[in-house]
């Protein structure tokens, strides 16, 4: 009898604990996970029936098209505890697309490159999530061939180009120019065992951090096959671009170092293009330098964060500066390939490394784009992207010789907390996926005032 009572008490405690964990996990999202995602600008290209987990794509959809499916989901009770996912299976392979803990309503599933002309049958399976029989709306975008196109990748900081577009620029390395805007000397204090937390030592730490990240920005693209002549570091200071924009002609000092001299970091360049860089740490100089780069390189594609959906100010103002440079030049050819690394709620993308990347949660907020471009990455390409990110000092765990034991314990406990109560937020896990995703805007939109205002609107 005593054992039975004890068993019942333990069972009750487990149920209560499960309820608490489920409630906390739902609240970790900055939005209501029971709401439908809303993308009013997506075309309704076709409708197919999902019956018993199976659908067949129409012959009108090309095997190279970007295909986004709007599908209704309903999480089971277990999906409140363990992150649910949708399995996608075809004759080409298997993929996973994750749903929020307790997620319900319309979500967008990326079916690009899961099928071929020989077989258009797709099987969907819900894991801790229910997929009812339904009519599925498809949004289809013919995928532009990028062979021979010149690609300019703008990275606000070292590692941003790799997180967003390493697969893209590796595939087109011979035609790519990678430009990093800031030295990235700011952020958290990393090297506790090497530098004390006094003003002099902290300055030394941030200087070395900037130098390391500048080195990362100039060397990691070499792994993809980009030539050193096509890699640039502009040397502006971390977390200063918004202030520069507000005072266009004023030189803005580093928030961590007692200097406004951009040549402190810019001198590390070896590319002949660096000889044309000029001006100080001010907005006018940034726009003029981007105009010089664009005019010299003549890109067909410019990869940069979307101010609408990337919350990081340096990311927003990198693109705003590029757009001002395009207007200054009256440059009209090509497309902007926009993306997000710090989504508005920073809970995107969710799920495990290697899973599908699709449209983020949107609920009618302003988000300007004309089409979606999904680039597939096979397992070997994902591995190479991961190794490139591992070469970035700022986003890999520090070695034992650099961080003290208290820091390592804190990181371990913090990681456990996220694993139990939250979702994985480390950048490597979030952005090494089976595809890279870009929101395409014609450069011509920059020269239409209404579209221009939509592009530069900050989320």
How would you characterize this protein structure?
With 459 residues, the protein is α+β, with helices and mostly antiparallel strands. The chain folds into two domains: 46-141, Jelly Rolls; 151-342 and 378-432, Rossmann fold. Helix content is 32%, strand content 21%. A hairpin with a 2-residue loop joins strand 4 and strand 5 (93-98). Helix 2 crosses helix 8. The longest helix has 26 residues, at 2-27. It starts with a helix and ends with a helix.
Tags for this entry?
alpha+beta; seven-stranded mixed β-sheet; Rossmann fold; 459 residues
Largest β sheet strand count, sense and barrel closure:
7 strands, mixed
Q: Give the radius of gyration.
A: 24 Å
Class by SSE composition: alpha+beta
In terms of quaternary structure, what is this?
single chain
The sequence of SSEs as H and E is HEEEEEEEEEEHEHEHHHEHEEHHHEH
Q: Give the proportion of residues in helices.
A: 25-40%
Shape: globular
């Amino acid at each position: 009898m005593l054992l039975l009572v004890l068993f019942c008490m333990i069972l009750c405690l487990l149920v209560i604990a499960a309820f608490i964990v489920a409630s906390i996990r739902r609240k970790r999202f900055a939005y209501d996970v029971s709401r439908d995602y809303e993308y009013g600008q997506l075309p309704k290209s076709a409708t197919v029936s999902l019956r018993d987990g199976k659908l067949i794509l129409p012959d009108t959809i090309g095997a190279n098209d970007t295909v986004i499916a709007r599908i209704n989901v309903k999480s089971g009770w277990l999906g409140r505890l363990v992150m649910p996912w949708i399995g996608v299976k075809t004759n080409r392979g298997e993929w996973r697309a994750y749903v929020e803990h307790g997620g319900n309503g319309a979500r967008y599933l990326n079916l690009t490159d899961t099928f071929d002309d020989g077989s258009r049958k797709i099987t969907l399976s819900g894991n801790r999530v229910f997929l009812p029989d339904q009519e599925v709306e498809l949004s289809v975008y013919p995928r532009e061939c990028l062979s021979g196109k010149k690609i300019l990748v703008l990275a606000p900081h070292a590692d941003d180009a790799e997180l967003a577009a390493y697969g893209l620029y590796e595939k087109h390395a011979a035609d790519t120019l990678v430009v990093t805007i800031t030295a990235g000397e700011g952020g958290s204090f990393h090297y506790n065992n090497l530098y004390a937390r006094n003003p002099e030592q902290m300055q030394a730490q941030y200087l070395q951090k900037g130098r390391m990240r500048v080195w990362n920005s100039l060397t990691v693209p070499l792994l993809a096959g980009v030539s050193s002549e096509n890699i640039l570091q502009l040397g502006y200071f971390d977390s200063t671009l918004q202030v520069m924009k507000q005072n266009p002609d004023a030189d803005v000092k580093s928030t961590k170092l007692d200097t406004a001299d951009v040549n402190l970091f810019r001198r590390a360049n070896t590319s002949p293009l660096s000889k044309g860089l000029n001006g100080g740490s001010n907005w006018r100089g940034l726009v003029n330098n981007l105009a010089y780069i664009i005019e010299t390189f003549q890109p067909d594609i410019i990869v940069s964060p979307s101010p609408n959906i990337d919350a990081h100010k340096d990311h927003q103002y990198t693109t705003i500066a590029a757009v001002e440079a395009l207007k200054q030049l009256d440059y009209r050819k090509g497309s902007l390939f926009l993306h997000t690394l710090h989504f508005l709620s920073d809970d995107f993308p969710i799920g495990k490394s290697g899973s599908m990347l699709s449209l983020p949660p949107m609920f009618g907020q302003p988000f300007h784009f004309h089409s979606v471009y999904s680039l597939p990455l096979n397992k070997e390409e994902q591995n190479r992207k991961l190794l490139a990110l591992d070469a970035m000092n700022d986003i890999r765990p520090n070695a034992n010789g650099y961080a003290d034991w208290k820091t390592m314990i804190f990181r371990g406990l913090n990681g456990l907390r996220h694993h139990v109560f939250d979702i994985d937020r480390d950048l490597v896990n979030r952005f090494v996926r089976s595809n890279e995703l870009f929101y395409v805007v014609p450069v011509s939109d920059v020269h239409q005032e209404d579209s221009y205002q939509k592009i530069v609107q900050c989320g």
